[in-house]
Design brief:
The protein contains seven helices and 15 strands. By secondary structure, the chain is an alpha+beta fold. It binds L-MYO-inositol-1-phosphate. The site of L-MYO-inositol-1-phosphate has 14 residues, from strand 5.
């Protein structure tokens, strides 16, 4: 197997183990461990335990690699490969018992920032429903053993779009304004609460497009590769040079340009 296929296979194995741990902990009851950037930005004991499992497995299998995780931060490696990990994406869903959360693991090379990295492999695993979205650079995007493709066109009723809102209440007016600006393109909006699943759903054709401001690198690292490997387009930038949080847009090419320009992605 090639390097990217090896990285994908390792990510799949670890994501399955991590996802099962998250599912078992959820069934046993979830404790909020702390709040982070805002009152709504929580971390559970399971987030920490799952990230520790992922980190330990990666260190054992590929000790020279770097790591960037939502809960434990960054460690530089020497191999040029960095693992970008969200142990439980959709944390608030997870804490409330809404079965829409996923383990997101990506391997990137180069500087581990979304502006600079090249994504090599990515896995988004949703343990409830046992949905394993996975990809290796150049090998396409998959749900289990089914190859994925973005929707080739958008219906006459408009695009089915998804978005999300930041944890910081100060961002809400801008988020709502953005949603209102984009709404004329949409047949409807979905707000699932897990960016990695939103991006996976674009890749799978379950959504025509997705947009959100303020995502962290670990929210989008695996899902963005799934989108592009499924024939979709992905963009991330500071909208019109503003100082607001970076805007992410992902969509089928059938709606990408209209969505990106309407959302202000320069
Ligand atoms: C979440 C994202 C979601 C966004 C939330 C939060 P977390 O990540 O997946 O799309 O709207 O504000 O950033 O915190 O569950 O890992």
């Amino acid at each position: 197997m090639s390097l990217v296929q090896d990285l994908e296979a390792l990510a799949i194995d670890i994501a399955r183990e991590a996802g099962e741990l998250a599912r078992v902990r959820r069934e046993a009851g979830v404790a909020i461990a702390a709040t982070k950037s805002a009152l709504a930005d929580i971390v559970t004991e399971a987030d920490r335990e799952v990230e520790a499992l992922i980190r330990a497995r990666l260190a054992a299998e590929r000790p020279e690699d770097g790591f960037l995780g939502e809960e434990t931060g960054a460690d530089t490696g020497s191999s040029g490969v960095t693992w970008v990990v969200d142990p439980i994406d959709g944390t608030v869903n997870y804490a409330y018992g809404i079965p829409a959360y996923a383990v997101s693991i990506a391997a990137v090379q180069g500087e581990p920032t979304p502006e600079a990295w090249e994504a090599l492999a990515g896995v988004v695993y949703a343990p409830v429903g046992d949905e394993l979205f996975h990809t290796a650079l150049g090998d396409g995007a998959w749900l289990g053993d089914r190859r994925l493709s973005v929707n080739p066109e958008v219906g006459p009723a408009g695009a089915l779009l998804a978005t999300g809102f930041g944890y910081d209440p100060a961002t809400r007016p801008g988020d709502l304004e953005l949603s209102g600006t984009v709404l004329p393109l949409a047949r409807d909006l979905r707000r699932a609460g897990a960016a990695s699943l939103d991006l996976s759903y674009v890749a799978a054709g379950r959504l025509d497009g997705y947009f959100e401001r303020g995502l962290a690198p670990w929210d989008l690292a695996a899902g963005s590769l799934l989108v592009t490997e499924a024939g979709g387009r992905f963009g991330r930038a500071m909208p019109d040079g503003s100082r607001r949080a970076p805007l992410v847009v992902a969509a089928t090419p059938a709606i990408y340009d209209a969505l990106a320009s309407t959302a202000g992605l320069t």
